[in-house]
Amino acid sequence: xxxxxxxxxxxxxxxxxxxxxxxxxxxxxxxxxxxxxxxxxxxxxxxxxxxxxxxxxxxxxxxxxxxxxxxxxxxxxxxxxxxxxxxxxxxxxxxxxxxxxxxxxxxxxxxxxxxxxxxxxxxxxxxxxxxxxxxxxxxxxxxxxxxxxxxxxxxxxxxxxxxxxxxxxxxxxxxxxxxxxxxxxxxxxxxxxxx
Length: 195
Fold this sequence. Notes:
There is one protein chain. The chain is mainly α and 195 residues long. The chain is built from nine helices and no strands. The longest helix has 19 residues, at 174-192. The radius of gyration is 19 Å and the shape is globular.
């Protein structure tokens, strides 16, 4: 008696609402208001930026790019200044925030294996980090430090693979990937005292 294995079909990809993702990122970052670094500074950075934006003339952002199209366009498009402004502009984030937002991008765009991104816009861990980096949410040092926390969590589990190779292992699931990214965020939070 032979058993026949039927190939599984890839589930259809639901369109991603990039505007919704950006709103969630902004809500997340707004909820994490930081205190000032120096006792003589009485306003938070967010308050100072808000004051500066009120005083500066508002930039006209008439271009609206639909979420599905944005997800399918090449990643370099995210670095175009008008696109960055439309989606929140460059913003410094902590390593913990970067990792939590990486998980959010994977949840919203879908998870990929064997490539940074698929033609439908799904992302692996590195691909999700690239979205945030290109939108200006963190810099190279932030991405590198996030990678070190991902590696630390894997090392604590006895895994010597790099996190991008671990992402691509056969049998790996999106649930496992999200759990790793969130564990790395918790590791970062612990290592930095909550920042």
